[in-house]
Amino acid sequence: MIARRVAAASATLLLGTLGLPGVVAAHQLSGSFQSRLPLAVYLVGAAGAVALSFAFVLLRDLRATAVVDDGRRATIPGFVRNFLRAIGLIGWAWIMVQAIAGGDSDAEVSRLFAWNYGWVGVALISALAFPVWTWLDPFSTLYDIGAWLLRRLGVGTVSPAEYPAGLGRWPAVAGFAAIVWLELVASGAGSRTLAFVIAGYTVYSLAMMAQYGRSTWSRHGEIFSVWFGLIGRLAPFATLADDRGAALRRRDFAAGLREGGWATSDIVLVGLGTGSILFDGLSQTQIWVTTFGLPATLPQTALLAGFMALIIGAALVVARLVGIPATGAGLVPIAVGYLLAHYFTYLVIDGQRLVIALSDPLQQGKDYFGTAFFEPNGGWLAPGFVWTLQLAAVVGGHMIGAWGGHVVAARAELTQDEDPPGHAFDVRRRQIPLAMVMVALTTLTLWSLGQALFVPAG
Predict the structure, then answer these.
(1) Cβ(169)–Cβ(266) under 8 Å?
(2) Which residues, at least 6 apart from 390, have a Cβ–Cβ distance to it below 8 Å?
(3) Which among 155, 30, 40, 55 is positioned nearest to 403, based on CA atoms?
(4) Residue 251 · residue 238 · CB < 8 Å
(5) Residues 439-453: pLDDT tens digits?
(6) DSSP category for residue 247
(7) What secondary structure letter does DSSP report for 263?
(8) From the CB of residue 170, how many other CB atoms can be counted at a distance below 10 Å?
(9) 3-state percent helix, strand, coil for the chain, nearest multiple of 5
(10) Sign of the dihedral defined by the CA atoms of residues 136, 137, 143, 147, in that order
(11) What does pTM read for this prediction?
(12) DSSP assignment letter at 66
């Protein structure tokens, strides 16, 4: 009931915002998605909508009960699970073979699979639908194949070591930071470099799974499993304890935000995710290039580190004031909204390069299906649809975050049966820092989406 009320109020606010003059031109690959209307008016309208969403949530003092497993299950057919595992393994093998025997062309798949389909596509499915990485994950599949072969050969196995509790999910956070640097600073290193990084990460993952057990390492140290699991708190389906089983747990959309298990590492991780998207968008704008130029690796690393420190530092300060669960519940929807807004055009336009790769799988000048010279394009995308989707993603993510952060904070400190006089107001007042950070982040990303992108000469 509470979720429906928030959804109705959010929809009203969002429709009001969409009725204002405004536009976004996010992470575009074409000038056809440029703004048609004044950015200032659009920013005022959007910022007003997100601020009003907090006012609605805080003044109404919405509450939510704890999430319990009500026994709802969704069975995943075996052929679907096997198909997904095969797709993940084929994608990994394709990257490896192409890096060793391939040439150099638009059919290169390491970037396509890693950044486009993986970093964006799998992330959005994990956040909005179901934990697809559970079966796509090639590292777990390789481990399972290796364990099966060892059993067939009669080789004895050693019991996994106990995972150090103090490590928590920090190994995944450190790895995530390295990936952010690789994407935003070292992205020009070449496709073979990325393929070799993937090969090295594969060896590392298999070694850690052998050391601590596949499921344990996936929950704590495997970068993609941890990240997709974190943003997957929004999804209406979640994994069970047996994360390779045939069933998923069903729940209401965004109910995972109210579930337990939050840790400081999650705040840092979502801060890295949010900050990296913001940095990527800002660093492509003309105003950023005018200010900082096109820095080399070391200066760019310093800029990225400083920007990340600001975002993560603000998130940790808010977590200290409001609580880790409330801060996480408030920021995860924002991160997902930013991901969709900034990378939607990149996913659907650059993702078309798959048809080139299918015709020339080893980048050797072949044209098996007549699509080797296909040119990805976004002419079929209506500009109005693109910027409306982007605006809805950013503002909608903020509104869900406003609700999630408040109800988690309220449940942590109050119960509906025990509510001392003045206590509810005090709880809501302590959430103001979270509201300020969320409104600031949303306004910043909306501003960046409306900026002209830098276009290199020639």
Answers:
(1) yes
(2) 24, 26, 340, 341, 342, 344, 449
(3) 55
(4) yes
(5) 788 778 777 777 777
(6) E
(7) -
(8) 16
(9) 70, 5, 30
(10) negative
(11) 0.86
(12) P
